């Protein structure tokens, strides 16, 4: 039986000692056709283990509707890893952080305004139990104790950064055990007193998350957990990016040196990330600290992370530097990599057809009448956009429109004409107007740019969460259109015409592919919006950068005719798109 166990400061796998050399690959950020490619590169670099989170909201997008097919086929991913001779670390915590929308928690939890998250709150735990009843039985046959590749599983994720409810943590531990999980369980937290005191579980092995100074981190771990194996469960060898900020990088030499420090003392390690992948669709998360100067910061679509294997699967300098360090401690044969994945430039795509959002509402959504402008979750909506409209009587003198707690970015229209944008991170932006005697219709298009995924502010409902005032007066009786934009098939397109600036519109174009290959959608000339290829949501783009292209994996294309749709909020220089054969992760570095 290949069960991972602890014997003093040493991991044992069955009867032999093991130093875990692991790397994170998130199956939910990679198209399934490329899972083997990424796993083979992990093994070729000298790793013996792959680690993955399991995002609850990806597998139960609507309460009671479970998805385990396609990109969500977790069992297949684990089996493929095992077939390649890799061990697997699974982190199925209800919460995963991961710069993923809501830290993996499903948005529908927030339909209950009294919901308490990540604590011993019975309504919350009932939802966790229902999910685990579906998830955990799928993992039991894949445990190493049953001949599978899974050697350990996580109880909760960085819980000490959030809370200190030991009853909750022990409930989650027992939730795994009673469903048949008999492999090694663990927690992972930052190496700080309050984090370890809040996140450790009695009798459960604890690991640490950090990016540098392993001597200090491991010293603290030994104070809390003497004579136990040392492991960095998240070695942050790269970092993620926010819209409007720089693209993060870290030198390969620095990454290799810190790894060498850890391996030289026999510590185990899990690279976070080995290969990052992509936040397809609306699955990017966001950050929001609690200091007065902190603002909401949404994460970009690319999850390249500046790590060993790039977003599109290319080997980086870090790959070779890390492999060289590993070869000092593990005998590695010649480097054998899978065949490179082809990249193609498909040239210019003319976006010849157009559908304006405000005149297409009936194709996309059934309106709901509501006294107050309710948030998305109360209407059963998880992601995308939401449009609130109300009639305002006149005459009225010029006054300011106040949106109380807009989440996250709102375009304001008066009788269909754009008046300005109010952003969560820029609440002082004023929009004022007067109302003529005949009155006006006020419409507010709100974009959910990703729920906060880390820290004390993760309870992050979307849309307009409090109310709308014109001057001092609250406005009531709204028509609401939920716009998840997960199905655009009912849109009626017409030939593209010159649109007014800031008139949200869908643009549609077609192009022919002789041989599908990876390509990159260059968004130069476009302002802000969402791109779709053959109905698949590639994610958001925004001209403030840092990324200047969207990655299109070859398997999303098909031989012959392909459809590209751009949902553009503010307007484009020209209705055309370039599909090129290289990515732009930092617009300043574009060729």
TrEMBL record:
It is an enzyme of class 3 (hydrolase). Keywords: Glycosidase, Hydrolase. Residues 373-483 form the Beta-galactosidase 1-like first all-beta domain. Its EC number is 3.2.1.23. It catalyses: Hydrolysis of terminal non-reducing beta-D-galactose residues in beta-D-galactosides. Pfam families: BetaGal_ABD_1, BetaGal_gal-bd, Glyco_hydro_35. It comes from the Bacteria. Residues 504-562 form the Beta-galactosidase galactose-binding domain. Residues 10-328 form the Glycoside hydrolase 35 catalytic domain. InterPro entries: B-gal_1-like, BetaGal1-like_ABD1, BetaGal_gal-bd, Galactose-bd-like_sf, GH, Gly_Hdrlase_35_cat, Glyco_hydro_35_CS, Glycoside_Hdrlase_35. PANTHER family: BETA-GALACTOSIDASE RELATED. Belongs to the glycosyl hydrolase 35 family. This is Beta-galactosidase. The gene is bgaC.
